[in-house]
Amino acid sequence: MADIVLAKNVGSLIALVAASAAVTATAGGTGDATAVTGASIDRASHKMPLSAAFGIAFETVLSASATLSITSAKLQHSADGSTWADFLTFDAPGVVATGAGTVDGIVKLDADVSTANRYLRLVWTPDLSASGTDTLKAQALAVLAGGNVLPAV
């Protein structure tokens, strides 16, 4: 067990960054079934992390029998922050909320980014099943870890 580093401050080993702006959607209207292109994340600003966990935090107001689905999610990468290519397509999370009333939740997506280019961005698509009444507020965050520089222990 001599090769295990006992870090006392795990928070010093991760970075938490906004992976998208806050977005809203109305069923059958603006933002519904429309891809959300996330913010550019510069891995070099965070010690070139090898791992990323993305969370899409949401609050949705649903009518009876209505659903919120995340119909697609992918991670793109770029060498220069302007020309993007798909790096990883996640399994679609599908239905993430159901029922009548306000539902809060988080959809988690994990990625090994050890072979990704310098810049990352998440692209995801929310879909509200009803028309005209249901609403969504959401934002994506990223937890970056496994940088090539560890703090002194």
Structural class: mainly beta
Main β sheet profile: 6 strands, antiparallel
Helix content: under 10%
Counted by DSSP, the helix tally is 0
- Beta percentage is over 45%
* Strand tally: 11
How do the SSEs run, as a string of H and E?
Answer: EEEEEEEEEEE
Q: What kind of oligomer do you see? A: single chain
What would you call the shape? elongated
Mean of the pLDDT scores? 92
Alpha carbon gap, first and last residue: 16 Å
| Uncertain spans | none
What is the gyration radius calculated from CA atoms? 17 Å
Descriptive overview:
By secondary structure, the chain is mostly beta strands. It is 0% helix and 52% strand. The chain contains no helices and 11 strands. Strands 3, 4, 6, 7, 8 and 10 form a 6-stranded antiparallel sheet that branches. It is elongated, with a radius of gyration of 17 Å. The protein starts with 13 loop residues before the first strand and ends in an 8-residue tail after the last strand.
Topology, please?
Layout: E1 14-18, E2 23-26, E3 36-37, E4 41-42, E5 51-62, E6 67-78, E7 85-89, E8 94-98, E9 101-112, E10 119-128, E11 135-145
Antiparallel strand pairs: 1-11, 2-11, 3-10, 4-10, 5-9, 5-11, 6-7, 6-8, 6-10
What would you say about this model in short?
It contains no helices and eleven strands.
Output the keywords:
153 residues, 0% helix, mainly beta
